[in-house]
Structures are given as structure tokens and as C-alpha cells.
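Thread title: Can someone regenerate the structure for this chain?

I was given the following input by a collaborator and told the matching C-alpha cells would be attached. They weren't. Posting the sequence so someone can regenerate them.
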Amino acid sequence: MACTKQTYTASATWTASQLADVFRDAFIDAGLMAAWHASFLSGSIENRVLRVQYDASKTYGTTFYWFQFSTTGAYLHVATGWDTATNQPSGTQYLDYFSTTTSSTSNHWIFASPSSTSTVILDRYTSGVDNKQSWFLLRWSTSRFVFTIAHPGSTRQSWLNLDRGQFVGFAHAAPSTAFARGTLDFRRGPALRRDLFIGAGLVGTTSLTNYAATAASNHRLLGYGAVGHVSNSSDNFAFATPHILLPVGFSATNPAYPANSNPVFHSLPYTPYLVDSLPSDFGISFHYATNTFSPGDTFVVSAGVEEWEVLDFAANSTAVNGASPLFLARMI
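Best answer:
Regenerated them for you:
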């Protein structure tokens, strides 16, 4: 099976409302919502709330993804409740929301910083194997951001107790390289003290740096890595944090390989909190060559038979022996 792709565009010079409409259309087509739960202008900031009910029978079974849009950026925080009468999050501050300010983006995590003078493109890739899984490639100028939001029909681990805390299903891809090695991490978005996984680390703090920018958005869910083909280099194995290493075959290293092999690995989990792994039409590969990539490029395994599209990547500078991670969507 292959992914389906649809492109949504905010052409320069766009307004904050037009940028919000790009996300609206993509989220509707991904099956995340039928419409925004809340949509309003506060000052110059367009506020939009995506409500995802993971289990409506549970106390914290609904997560509210609170987006803000301006002509210079896209921002996100989360809440466990939302009052549509007051246009504010509900509950207890820091436990259930970080701030009630709707006219400023200063209390949200900025995940994209496009200028309205540059066209913004949002590509939606939806799996043909499991249409509940979509990844979004956001592009502006020379920058990009690749993310997903867990579908309301996703299957969570049985030990995740939504009567006791919140599940945030926002995740983003983060490829990187160092020395000859390469990694592809999946990281999460903002959190609250009600968060089941990292909320305990937020006790006593009132800082956005902890609630959105550092402790939350940089927290790694799962990470994959591959080593480069260099002689006896300890730096090649010096991963800063534990990663799941994926096999790469070099004929010069292991003569059992008649030719060098760097396959596309698929059906991998991207978060330990969902039973659902990435479907077989999303994959990871580690490329070993001097080729450079751009989002949307075609990665050909077998022409006309197996072709993938590049969602995200990092280019290793170590000649043709360094591992360059690729996050891919199969299109053929």
C-alpha cells in the first residue's frame, strides 16, 4: 500500500486566518475533526482549538490542542478542558492549562516561524494501510517541520489511565547527525502537570520554558540510529542518548553482503504510548552518499515498484560513509 498526499497552501501574502485555514482543512481531511472546537480572534492573534476525544468516558480522555496563528508564526499549547462561552481553557492553572491569555503568543510553544511574505505549504500524507495515521510536512522558505497528532481512533496502551491524567498525541520528527552517525528521533509537544508521562517534572514551576519549550517539546519518545562506515572510530558509536540501532550492511565490513545495503525500515513504533506502530508505508532509511535531499524528493528503491517521498532528513558531512537519516512516505 502507499500513502495519499494532499497539499494545502497559504500563498504570500497570507493573513493569520488564512494560515489557520490551511491547518483546518488538513486536520479535517486527516479525520482529526469535523471543525474547530473553538475559533476566534483575540487582538491580532487567531486562536483555534482542536478537540480530540481519546476516550470520552474518562475524566481526562479529551485533549484540547490550542493553536495560535499570527503573520509571523504558528504556536501550540494543550489543555484538559475548554470553555467555549469564555473562549478560555478550563480547570486549574498549570494542572489543566498553562495560561488563559488569548491575545498574545508568549505563553505558547512556537513550532513554526513563517513570514506572511513567504508562501506556506502543508502536505498531508495519510497511510493507505491505516487511514487513521497521517503525518504533516509544513514548509516555509528554507525551513520545515514534520509532525503528527494521534487520531481519536488510535489504540493506546492498556496501562494508560485517562482517569488520572492526560495523553498528548502530538509528536514531531527530529533527524540529526554527528560525526559519522545519524539519528531520527520522534519527540513530543507541550505538556502540563496533568500529563501522565512528564508532568511530575513540572511540579513547582510556572515557566513556559519548562511547560512548553524545553521539558516538553524536546522530550524524546523514541529514537533510531545508525553508525557510519569509518575505521575504528569511537565517536561513531557515541550516541548522546540511547537509540535503537538499525542494521546497515557494508560489504567491506561484512563479506556476507555482496553489495552495500541500507534498506527502508518500516512498521516501527514512534511512541511507546500507542499500540499502533507506524504503518508499512512510512519508513526510515539511512542513506550513505554525498547526495543532498529536499522535502518532497523521491527516494527510489525500485523504479515504478517501490518509491518513497522524503518528509524529513539530515545530511551527514562525513563523505560517503556517514549515515544520513531519512523519514519517508511510500508513494508507489
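Residues 224-330 form one domain.
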